[in-house]
Amino acid sequence: MPLFEALNVTKRFATQTALDGVSISVPEQSIYGLLGPNGAGKTTLIRIINQITAPDSGTVMLNGRPIRPEDIYKIGYLPEERGLYKKMKVGEQALYLAQLKGLSRTEAMRRLKYWFKKLEITDWWGKKVEELSKGMQQKVQFATTVLHEPQLLIFDEPFTGFDPINVKLIKDEILFLREKGATIIFATHNMGSVEELCDNITLINKAKTILEGRVDTIRQEWAGNEFDIVFDGEVTPSGNAHFSVIRSQFEKGRSTVRIKAADTHNTNEIIRSMTAAGTVIAFNPALPSMNDIFIRVVETKNNEAAKN
Question: pTM of this prediction?
């Protein structure tokens, strides 16, 4: 049973439709990518999950039943626009936010000390928020988002403003939280992070769902007729009626060649041509990146809409 579901959710604002019959089903203990261009409807869906606003129609489910006001304590939300009070001291504010999530002062202190140490921000406890860099402020808010150990975590662009070292740190913590049992909705434009972290995705464009499924399955489905072949030694095969060579690279004693097949039914003919050209070490479908798929799907849907 999914931990969270949105079923045919529709939300309108005046003359604008923000969500039009959108459904997502988030498996328990998974990382679910919520993707889409700016203005697609992602933030509206997140606001509905957090009960900041309500859908005009459709149902939002948590643990197999319609979501209730008290379920807010089972959700942790890190918004894209951070919301710390600049003049408050870091520790004082973190403690206040933890208690808002239902933790006692003693338990909040214990958990905050754990997370501040883990995120390497212990020295900032007595500083004012305005004295922190943007990255340090994001670490503080990350800690206050997760420390009440919610069932459902929602991260909206959690890596914005981080250097590569801290991006890795937060990615590792997100994976750690999943291992401990959390279910995570991850809203982002960073397709590299989607490939690295997400099990499933939904792509929303102009208020509608246009692509959904497991990341590995989607990449396989969009692979097309391209293949990567690795040869032992320097080899540059010539194209023929069955395939064309897109690019070839020789490095560290091996050649990596990408080809485009004229017809995937002639794979055996292609393999024979490759083995005739040299010693083949690997022959695999060339999987497109999620960034390429994102662009292709959105452009296709936009072109279809323009024609209609």
Answer: 0.85
> Do both 50 and 187 map to the same domain?
yes
Handedness of CA 66, 46, 189, 80 (dihedral sign): negative
Query: What CATH number is attached to the domain comprising 60?
Result: 3.40.50.300
**Token output for 36:** 């889409």
Where in the sequence is the domain holding 274, given as residue range(s)? 224-285
Pairwise CA distance, residues 38 & 41, whole Å = 8
Q: What CATH number is associated with residue 252?
A: 3.30.70
Q: Are residues 236 and 208 in the same domain?
A: no
Using only C-alpha atoms, the chain has a radius of gyration, in whole angstroms, of 24
Q: Which of 261, 258, 254 is nearest to 281 (CA)?
A: 254
Q: What is the pLDDT, as a whole number, of residue 300?
A: 85
44-97 confidence digits (pLDDT tens): 999 999 999 999 999 999 999 999 999 999 999 998 877 788 999 999 999 999
Q: Residue 148: what pLDDT?
A: 94
